[in-house]
Write a structure and sequence with these properties.
It is a single chain. Strands 1, 4, 7, 8 and 9 form a 5-stranded mixed beta sheet that branches. Strands 3-2-5-6 form a 4-stranded antiparallel beta sheet, with no helix packed on it. The relative contact order is 0.22. It has one helix spanning 127-130, and strands at residues 35-43, 54-59, 74-78, 84-90, 101-107, 115-120, 142-145, 148-150, 153-154. The protein is 2% helix and 30% strand. The chain has a single domain (20-151), classed as Protocatechuate 3,4-Dioxygenase, subunit A. The chain has 1 helix and 9 strands, in the order ββββββαβββ. By secondary structure, it is mainly β.
């Protein structure tokens, strides 16, 4: 029999079971293109890691198309107890008028709304990133080796990741 874990009384849901994200973080299953790994750490204002944050990604295929029937372009992962998440996907191409990027949606118990942000691979010109203070430098992933990128997310405080309205 599965034991249920109580949730905090004053915390706004939703509350996500770990199984919610399992197996849904590999948009590269039927896609053509360069396979990459994106990992990062999600932290709160004081730098402490957040466990069980659900992250969803949406992206174009390697040719910059969002309408490829052979490529879902979507994935979901949850952070572990150290705040780390990992996605395996393909590197997206540039869609019309945009630099290659991956859209992120962040869901967490206690947040009053979904958070949306964008990850870029370099500082190529992009109208969304360039409209931000400091040119959106915090939205550029760090290359950590062959086919590996790191994109850390800070929910609040000094060095906060820029988030966008719906």
């Amino acid at each position: 029999m599965k034991r249920l874990v109580p949730t905090a009384e004053m915390t706004l849901g939703p509350f996500f079971p770990r199984e919610f994200a399992a197996g849904a973080n590999d948009p590269a299953v039927h896609a053509q293109g360069e396979t990459i790994e994106i990992s990062g750490r999600v932290v709160q204002a004081d730098g402490r890691a957040l466990d069980n944050v659900v992250l969803e990604i949406w992206q174009a295929d390697a040719e910059g198309r969002f309408d490829n029937p052979a490529f879902f372009g979507w994935g979901r992962a949850a952070t572990d107890s150290t705040g780390v998440y990992v996605f395996k996907t393909i590197k997206p191409g540039a869609s019309q008028g945009r630099a290659p990027h991956i859209n992120f949606l962040i869901l967490y118990s206690g947040l009053m709304r979904q958070l949306q942000t964008v990850m870029y691979f370099d500082d190529s010109p992009d109208p969304v990133r360039q409209s931000l203070k400091e040119g959106g430098a915090r939205l550029v992933a760090k290359k950590e080796g062959a086919n590996r990128y790191r994109f850390d997310i800070r929910l609040r405080g000094e060095g906060e990741t820029p988030f966008f309205d719906d």
